[in-house]
Amino acid sequence: MAVPKRKMSRSNTRHRRARWKASAPGLVPVTVDGVTLRVPPHLVAAYRRGLLRPED
């Protein structure tokens, strides 16, 4: 495991951490019961099988 040789300043640490942000998932259009929904790609199969129901 890599171990830093010197202490990183608080300013550099916070500047580095600020770049790590979660991004919104890309949504895929899916038609269920004649209604087009936009859902995350990993849930497409569940919506098509009827395991998840669209919220009205």
Structural features, described:
The structure is a single chain. By secondary structure, the chain is an alpha+beta fold. It has a domain at 26-56. The protein contains two helices and two strands. The protein has a two-stranded antiparallel sheet. A hairpin with a 2-residue loop joins strand 1 and strand 2. 0% of the residues are buried. The model has no long low-confidence stretch (mean pLDDT 88).
Low-confidence stretches: none
Structural class: alpha+beta
Per DSSP E runs of 2 or more residues, the count of β-strands stands at 2
* Helix fraction by DSSP (H/I, runs of at least 4): 25-40%
SSE order, one letter for each helix or strand: HEEH
Shape: rod-shaped
User: Roughly what fraction of the amino acids lie in strands?
Assistant: 15-25%
Number of helices: 2
How far apart lie the N and C ends?
50 Å
Strand order of the largest sheet: 1-2
Specify the biggest β-sheet. Answer: 2 strands, antiparallel
Average pLDDT level: 88
How large, in whole angstroms, is the Cα Rg? 21 Å
